[in-house]
Amino acid sequence: MVRSLAIKKKVSWISWYKNEDWSIGENKLKGMLSPQYNKYLSMYWMGKGFFLKNSTNEIKIGRRSIKIEPVGKLGFVVTDTESSEIHSAAAKQALVLARAILKEKKDYLLVLDEILNAVADELITQEEVFSLIKLRGLTNIVLTGRGIYPKLEKVVNLISDIQKIKHPYDVGQLAVPGLDF
User: Fold this and answer.
1) pTM for this one?
2) Structural contact between residues 50 and 15, judged by C-beta atoms closer than 8 angstroms
3) What domains can be seen in the chain, in order of their start residue?
4) What HEC string does 110-179 produce?
5) Which DSSP symbol is given to 21?
6) Rounded distance, CA 41 to CA 9, Å?
7) pLDDT digit string, tens, across residues 14-62
8) Sheet arrangement for strand 140-143
C-alpha cells in the first residue's frame, strides 16, 4: 500500500473486522499523509470488532452477550461484543463496497484487510471472494488474514505466508501498541 501511494496510485483499504472507534495505528494513517498523497487513499472500516464463532466464555450485560477470553494471569479480555448476525451483515456490506470499488475501475490497489479470516469464520464464502477477484480487471488486490485455500492459490498471482512463531499474548501479555495495533 505504501509503495502504491508513493508513486501516486489510488488505493482503497477495506477492513473486515476493525472499526473506526478503535484506537489503532491504521486509523491514524490517513491523517499522517501529506495532502498530495492523502488524496490517493480511501479507508473503510466495515467491521464490528473481533468475532469469535465458537466462544464458550460469554457474560450477559443486560440483554447483550459479550464474549471474553482468558489472558494468562491477567484475567479476561473482551473479545466480541456483537451477534453473529451483525458480524455477518457487516461482512456482506464490505463485499458490496469492494464490488463497487472494483466496478469503478479507478483504483490501482484494493486491500481487503482480514477477508480470509471472514471466510474462515464463515461470515462470507470462498465463492464470494472468487467472484470478487474476477471483477479485478487491472486493479491489484491484496487479501490478508489467516488461511489460504487451494482453489484460491490457482487464481492469485502472489502469495506470502506470514506466520506467528511466538507472541507475548501466548504467555498472557496484552497486545503491544505500535506493533499489534
Assistant:
1) 0.82
2) no
3) 2-49+83-171 (3.40.50.300)
4) EEEECHHHHHHCCCCCHHHHHHHHHCCCCCEEEECCCCCCHHHHHHCCCCCCCCCCCCHHHHCCCCCCCC
5) T
6) 9
7) 999 888 877 777 878 888 888 888 899 999 999 887 776 666 666 677 7
8) 41-45, 11-15, 109-113, 140-143
